[in-house]
């Protein structure tokens, strides 16, 4: 009997790479450009994963829409500048054992890999190319084409593109937005303990992963 196709969808920031240094620095710069006090470190990490047009109003709800838009653009400019300055590997290093685990999963013929991220396609492609990972992912869902997480649109599109049934897909992420998105799309969610939301905030997760190397075995358990 032929094994069904399976889809493993990954969040990026806080799940595959640790980009918090540049995220916080870029946000601090963006708010300074708008002459508004910057949110604290924990507040900034709390919105990682949301699309910027949703995240910025959450961080500064009292500001007008025009200022929100200015902060969004200033953040994008600052983030790109920081990444160009230090390079992708230093700016957004992979978490331990991420690469080996991705390659091991990719080597299984029935397993497809995807991405669902609040990044733009330009930002995602630069990140994946900087780490030489683009070839591993057959579907890449970004904020350019979808409502912000936790809306299920990204996962729904990934399922449609790959032809994988929801019961044969899983979303892996570090935030409550990822887990809520997975639940809304009817797929299981696996939370990671090393990201930007505390594990106890990932209440909708089917399991919590503490080490990337444990992911293949955990997937086998979920799909057995």
Automatic annotation (TrEMBL):
One of its GO terms (molecular function) is phosphoglycolate phosphatase activity. Signal peptide: none annotated. It holds the Pfam family HAD_2. One of its GO terms (biological process) is DNA repair. InterPro entries: HAD-like_hydrolase_sf, HAD-like_sf, HAD-SF_hydro_IA, HAD_2, HAD_sf, PGP-like_dom2. GO terms for cellular component: cytosol. This is Phosphoglycolate phosphatase. The lineage of its organism: Bacteria, Pseudomonadati, Pseudomonadota, Alphaproteobacteria, Rhodobacterales.
